Amino acid sequence: MTAKTILLIGAPVDSGKRSRGCLMGPDAYRTARLPGALSDLGHEVIDLGNVPADVTDIAEDSHLYALPETVGWTRALMREAEKAMARGLPIFMGGDHALSLGTLPGVAAHAAREGRPQFVLWLDAHSDFHTLETTGSGNLHGTPLAYATGRAGFPGFPDVPAPVPADQVCVIGLRSVDGPEREAFDAAGVMRADMREIDENGIGKPLSAFLDRVAAAGGALHVSLDVDFLDPAVAPAVGTTVPGGATVREAHLVMEMLYDSGLMTSLDLVELNPMLDERGRTAQLMVDLAASALGRRVFDRPTRGY
Question: Is residue 77 within 8 Å of residue 105, measured between CB atoms?
Answer without folding.
Answer: no
